[in-house]
# Entry
Amino acid sequence: MPVTETTDAYLFLQVAENDRVILKYHTNDCAEPCINFIPIFEDLSNDIAYKKIVFLVIDADNNPKAKERILNKNQPVITIYHKGQLLDSRHASTKEGVQELLEELLKV
Amino acid sequence: MVRAANWSSGRGGITNERSLKILPASERQLMGPQRKNDSFELIRDSFVTAAFLYLTKAPYHLKRIKMQITSSDEIDWANVFLHNEYIVVNYQPSSDCEGCKEINELFQRLDKFEEYRTVKFLWVDSRNNPIAEQFIKKTQKPFMAAFKDGFLVECNVVSTDADLKRMILRLFSFKFKL
# Structure
């Protein structure tokens, strides 16, 4: 399933409508780590093992607090949701880091 | 004879009752207490000013008087996220839905509770958000979303007051691992 871009106005509806969601908060200001992470996230979204999970990406430039958290570690922030509830949130810049979250999401 | 400041010319000086009577009321208020009535007016005006300053400098007290629930189709999310740790958004459908009236009444009351004073309650008209409108039409129940520090913590249909209070409690207790 391809990665879908979302906005603050529609994010919660997409989270509410899908049982399992992984969301990446991204900003171009974190430069290399965020840009390098784009293909990793896309590859995982196409992995058949995670076909039950909806992959979303949101630009944090309109969200000063989320952006601050990204820039603190210069890594994208990943959050996972199950049936509308936030289960976990982490900084992630590696495939393994995201896979850990995806596995956690599949277990619930 | 009474002493009064001549505010229009910027000079202080002596004036009398007669000259005071022909001054505009706005200028008379700026002068010291002239008579018993003036003293009363001065006290009254001081009280009004103090009350105004008190209210404008203490947002919570202002909030208790003016409901903070906003009915808006265009939210400045960046600004809302920046200034509020906790946000609860209530999507108001164009048509009535099951439990909407009851939940909306509770939603408005919550804004006045001391324990929820740190929460920004937003009441959004979903008619300008086609996806939200479609979603509520489908579920036929009130829909809300809760945010902490700019991150979505929960979004769901909220059918009862217990659901709404549970959502807020969860919002308060949620801890990020970031």
